[in-house]
Each structure stands twice: as C-alpha cells, then as structure tokens.
Design goal:
Layout lengths: L1 H24 L4 H10 L2 E4 L2 E4 L5 E5 L2 E6 L13 E7 L8 H14 L5 E3 L3 E3 L6 E8 L5 E8 L4 E8 L3 H10 L2
Length: 179
C-alpha cells in the first residue's frame, strides 16, 4: 500500500511539474486567451465597437486603446518584436474639410519617415464617416517590421500599428471592423 502511494505521489508530482513547465513556456499567449474567453471578440471604447483579433488583447491606456499580440511562447520573446497597435480619438477641433485633413496627414507622414524606410501610397478604407486614410512605411531592404498609421472617422481618430509585416492585414481588419 505504502509503495503504491509513493508511486502515485511521484506520478502526481511529475504530471504537475510538466503542466507547470508547459504553462510557463506558453504563458505569453495565456493573456489573450483568457481575455477572449471573458469578453468575446470586441471591446467598446469611446462609443466605438472595436474588434479584437484572435491571439490579441486590448489594454486601456490614458486616452487610447492599445491592442497587442504577444509572442506565442517564451522561446519566441527574442525573435521579432510583439505586434502592437493603438486607437485613439483626436481631441480638439474637428477638421472642416476631410480631404484637406487627409492630405495634411499624408504630407506629415512622408516628412516623418524613418531614414532607410520607404513610404507606400495612401490606402483608403471604408466610406463616409467610417472612412480611414492609411499610410505604411517599411525598411527599404529586407526587414520583417513595418508601421502603419491611419486617420479614421473623417479625421477624428488615429490608429497606429508597429509590428511584423505579416500582421498588417489583422490591423487593417480591426480598422475595417470598427463601428
């Protein structure tokens, strides 16, 4: 009897240790999983319903909503930076002429380009009050990272993305899905 109990205790300890090790290795991906289980796939911020892609999670910061995608495991923490984006209303006067606001945004974005990066053409998403004007810059040679900035809702909100190039479509899906 005592031998069986000893063996069961050792087996329980091994299983528990293995589970704790797996939990530790995959801990960065637990936060988004738990957030989605509790809240679903959207968050309401400043009167807008904002979609949150799978494996991403939102954090409310001062006057902005950050939406991040951490690495899947601890082993990938040293590889390309986690994906990060934010959305925020632009406080102050509303632009009188939306097209002029978009042109000003595009001019400023081109002037503020990081040396060695290339700026793409403006991309318009949506129509009317849901329209967004987005600009992207990427390294001229190679590189896995890019940044995208969008002026949203007729120039009254700003959206920013910094991360891996393969995640840009997820960010643009967030922009398209805001209502």
């Amino acid at each position: 009897m005592k031998l069986d109990r000893n063996r069961d205790t050792k087996r329980f300890a091994m299983v528990t240790a293995s589970l704790l090790l797996l939990l530790a290795v995959f801990s960065p991906s637990l936060r988004p999983l738990l957030w989605h289980l509790r809240h679903g796939d959207t968050i309401v911020y400043e009167g807008k319903r904002i979609p949150v892609p799978r494996y991403w999670y939102p954090t409310l910061e001062f006057r902005r909503l950050d939406i991040s995608k951490p690495p899947l495991t601890l082993f990938s923490l040293g590889s390309p930076l986690p994906v990060w984006s934010f959305l925020s209303p632009l406080y102050g006067a509303r632009p009188k002429n939306v097209e002029e606001s978009y042109r000003s945004f595009e001019t400023y974005y081109r002037a503020a380009v990081v040396p060695g990066n290339v700026v793409g053409k403006p991309v318009r998403i949506g129509k009317g009050q849901s329209e967004a004007d987005c600009m992207q810059q990427s390294p001229m040679i190679g590189g896995e990272h890019t940044s995208v900035s969008c002026e949203l809702f007729a120039g009254t909100w700003m959206g920013e993305f910094v991360g891996r190039t393969d995640e840009v479509d997820n960010f643009l899906q967030i922009i398209r899905g805001i209502n």
